[in-house]
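In this supplementary section we document a worked example of the pipeline. Step one takes a protein sequence of length 340 as its only input; no multiple sequence alignment statistics are reported here. Step two produces a three-dimensional model, which step three serialises into structure tokens for compact storage. The input and output of this example are shown verbatim.
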Amino acid sequence: MGTYKRGTFREITPNAGPRVCHGADVFITANFIWWKAVQDGLRYASSGVGGNTTAAAPFASVGSGTNKSVGEDWAPGFKVGLGLALSHDGWDLYAQYTWLHAYDSSSINTTLSGGLAANYAGNSGQTNNSPFINADSAKAKWNLRFNVIDFEIGRNFYLSQYLTMRPFAGLKGTWQDQDIRFRYNSGSFTIPGVPTNATGPYRVHNHVDTWGIGIRGGFNLGWYLAKEWSIQTNFAWTTMWANYDDLKRNDTLDDRATGNSSRRANINNNSWYTVKYIGEMEIALRWETWFYDDNYHFAIQAGWENQVWINWGQVPVVYQQQTEHDLTLHGLNLKFRFDF
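The serialised model returned by step three reads:
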């Protein structure tokens, strides 16, 4: 038996396509997504905490309360992609853009027998000399603008008669911004060092702009139940070099009685860079067909996709240690593909 030389054709893992006859070897994809986006770490208020006691009842107990957070929303979005099937060994090139905008708002009021801890106000918004920041009510708003581009090179081949695998490698890029606003209301806010109180509200505005690019790799598996039907599973992992180029926080304490406002925090961090990790998983059911003498191919699949952007969220804090929290996305992914 002769020695195998590179460049000599030997089919070890047969090409699984999909390919069409007499075509341009181009394919396009379009996805409708309905995802729930969740930014962890945005618990902005807690009810059922010890409020100000009175001399008549210095040891009064508070009633049951709850933690209130913002930063989660089901929202529609889309993906669009363009691919090219190469003649070299069945390789393919594929680029895809993902768009999603999410919005969430919530509010909370104090309980009758307890106070409301304003988790993001800080000591400059302390009310009535309480050992913690106390408010009567609170509101929050959150906006996420999520944009991603994936570019990959891969090869789809048969592992067995009914099982295909497509390993791929490439790049992931993103640009995102999050806008987070909290509003705390109380009858009287104490300003440290100032002998008078302000009526409020106490307003907190956080804004984070981020962009990044990183190395992405993974694989797709096709479990064929029949020629037209298959179960598709997708896995990907990214190490992303991220730039937080606009990370700011502004706190403002208003006094409706006098019309005055006091800026209690004014933080605008310079750009800084770090490496973040992103995991992606999906399972889907696909139906596909060839038509017009195999000159065209069409596929439709419905699946559930999960993404975890580990420690992606950066919310500037003033009186606590800086923390990082995951951004997660999951939900329906309805995909259409056309090869010609």
